[in-house]
Amino acid sequence: MTQLGEFQILLIDDNPADAKLFETALTEAGTRAKLYWVATAEEGIEYLRGEGRFAGAGPVGFVVCDLSLPGKSGLEFLVHVKKDPVLGPTPVVMYSSSRSPHDIRRCYELGANSYIVKPMSLQTIISTIGAMVRYWLDIVALPDPRALD
Question: Can you tell me the mean pLDDT for 1-20?
Answer without folding.
Answer: 79
